[in-house]
Design brief:
mainly alpha, 17 helices, single chain
């Protein structure tokens, strides 16, 4: 009898509580502000998810994070010998090893953000169905793991530049393009990853299409071949401008100009060609990517309403 009275008292007290809004508000301005405030309020949970992902990745591993170095190094050796030495690309590209490693480091960041974000909601379906929290933190946790791997690879790249590069320092202010290129790539990849993570909840084939798209985009970006070859082939026509419209391409080329000093050296043989007004192109790409990030977050907010039911 006492438990029944207590239950009735609790039910009455809950009934008298004021209604509280749960979830994200609609609207491009108020909704965006509420979403960012929601994510910030759960920043500790976001940090825990990033650490959980890193621990799960290297669980029961003797070498731990050292494994994050082996994949890019293996790719570097394969492309250096297969593309550079066997096919002769190294004879046409100064400091080919540095050139390839710069491209692989940037591409690894982009590919890991996209693939990790796409499956992030499905991988955390248990949490999505049980409690309310801003669902954006799941793709963002995948991005956090990708950034950690990128920083590790960036350290290796910096050491390789000082050890292997014939011109360790880029002339002029090219080095300033590096942080801007990284930020642009992260913003663009985050925008794409948010939308793909939401679509993948409704259309599970999305993650398989992303795998194919990643393969195609790899060869559509100047990673194992320099932009000089593209310019010689297209000659500056509209197809070249379409090629440069890819934000990943602009970010990679900018990173190469910043860190691949031999390619910016006027005395390099053969001389390398760079797109005109590269810094301006990169700034425009960053602005467009920020707009895309805003739009993708609003699209994600609209689609997340039925995540629990779909999962």
């Amino acid at each position: 009898m006492t438990s029944t009275v207590d239950a009735d008292a609790r039910a009455a007290s809950i009934e008298n509580l004021p209604m509280q809004y749960v979830g994200q508000k609609s609207g491009f301005v108020r909704g965006t502000r509420r979403s960012f405030a929601d994510i910030w309020a759960h920043r500790e949970l976001l940090g825990l998810l990033v650490r959980r992902e890193l621990k799960a990745r290297y669980k029961d591993s003797s070498l731990g994070i050292v494994w994050s170095l082996f994949r890019p190094l293996a790719q570097l050796l394969i492309y250096y010998f297969a593309i550079g030495q066997v096919l002769g690309a190294a004879r046409q590209t100064p400091d080919f090893a540095i050139f390839v490693f710069v491209g692989l480091t940037m591409w690894g960041l982009f590919a890991e953000i996209i693939t990790g974000s796409t499956t992030a909601i499905l991988a955390n379906s248990g949490l999505v169905k049980k409690v309310y929290l801003p669902r954006e933190i799941f793709p963002l946790s995948a991005i956090g793991g990708a950034l950690f791997n990128f920083l590790v690879q960036l350290v290796v790249l910096a050491v390789a530049i000082f050890v292997l590069s014939s011109v360790p320092f880029a002339p002029g202010i090219n080095i300033l393009l590096a942080p801007l290129a990284v930020v642009t790539l992260i913003v663009f990849a985050t925008a794409v990853g948010l939308v793909l993570s939401a679509i993948n909840v409704y259309l599970r084939d999305t993650q398989h299409l992303v795998e194919i798209a990643i393969i195609i985009l790899f060869w559509a970006s100047p990673i194992v071949y320099s932009f000089t070859y593209v310019h010689k082939l297209l000659g500056g026509n509209w197809l070249e401008q379409l090629y440069l419209a890819n934000p990943v391409t602009i970010a990679i080329i900018s990173m190469q100009k910043a860190l691949w000093a031999a390619g910016s050296d006027p005395a390099s043989t053969p001389p390398q060609y760079w797109p005109a007004h590269l810094a301006l192109r990169l700034l425009i790409t960053l602005v467009v990517s920020l707009v895309l990030l805003w739009l993708s977050q609003r699209a994600f907010s609209r689609l997340q309403g039925n995540f629990a039911q779909e999962l």
